Amino acid sequence: MRKPIIAGNWKMYKLLADAVDTALALKPLVANATHCEVVIAPVFTALKTVADRLEGSNIGVASQDCATQNSFGALTGEVAPAMLKDVGCKYAIIGHSERRQLFGETDGSVNLKTKAALEAGLKAIVCVGESLAERESGNAENIVGGQLSAGLSGLTLDEMNRIIIAYEPVWAIGTGKTATPAQAQEMHSHIRSLVGKDHGNDVAASVRILYGGSVKPENIGELMSQPDVDGALVGGASLDADSFAKIVNYK
Ligand code: PGA
């Protein structure tokens, strides 16, 4: 059985005090959520404090990005995965569509970041997803397939066991338009079969595939009822502890 993951991506929101308040408010609300892994991804500057305050809880902390290498170097502005692990992160989100669209992230850099994150002992949440134009031209499966095989290229079986995939159709992010549960299921099942071809059936059967894009308390139940949807990557609705807790406690 694949244990679901509900992850909140806080993007560039919240000063430190607000991040800590939200994390502490969330803690008791999800304390009984044994059915899933709970993850939050604050901004870099809040990671250590939030991770410290959540120590011993069932909430794991993720970064929203990381550098392509762990060895220290003259790389102004970058943060190595080993440094993220050092301050209490357990996961790194890699290749989010906002990074691909706004900050020049490529499949090649996603691959390097994924390898570096795994090398540092983090689990990597690797994001893929097509734009509206790509979906409308009938290319969604090819685009997502290309991102997936390039992003995960060269990973060993052991490394693949620490990979989490997030399917986030770009047209559904922050737009209020969710993919229908059937659309999510269709792409998730495609992703699982591609993982099977590239990395073998055992990895395909066990890899968790999260859906992201306007997930809310109102639609999480239906999304989670799809056989290949193993959790959610939640943006806007994760900023408020009550709303995120409702998503976590979808059962
Ligand atoms: P959203 O964002 O839930 O606000 O649509 C999802 C994401 O970007 O991870």
Topology diagram in text:
Layout lengths: L4 E5 L6 H14 L7 E5 L2 H10 L5 E5 L17 H6 L4 E4 L2 H6 L4 H13 L3 E6 L3 H5 L3 H12 L5 H4 L2 E5 L13 H19 L1 H6 L1 E5 L7 H5 L6 E4 L6 H8 L3
Parallel strand pairs: 1-2, 1-8, 2-3, 3-4, 4-5, 5-6, 6-7, 7-8
Helix pairs in contact: 1-2, 1-12, 5-7, 7-9
The chain binds 2-phosphoglycolic acid.
Q: What features would you highlight for this structure?
A:
binds 2-phosphoglycolic acid; 8 strands; TIM Barrel; alpha/beta; 251 residues; 8-stranded parallel β-barrel
Overview of this protein structure:
- By secondary structure, the protein is α/β, with parallel strands linked by helices.
- The chain has one domain: Aldolase class I (TIM Barrel, Alpha-Beta Barrel), CATH 3.20.20.70.
- It contains twelve helices and eight strands.
- It has an eight-stranded parallel barrel, surrounded by five helices.
- Helix 3 links the parallel strand 3 (59-63) and strand 4 (91-94).
- The protein starts with a strand and ends with a helix.
- The model has no long low-confidence stretch (mean pLDDT 97).
- Bound molecules: 2-phosphoglycolic acid.
- 2-phosphoglycolic acid is lined by residues 9, 168, 173-174, 212-215, 233-237.
Summarize the structure.
The protein is of the alpha/beta class and 251 residues long. The protein has helices at residues 16-29, 44-53, 81-86, 97-102, 107-119, 132-136, 140-151, 157-160, 181-199, 201-206, 220-224, 241-248; strands at 5-9, 37-41, 59-63, 91-94, 123-128, 163-167, 208-212, 231-234.
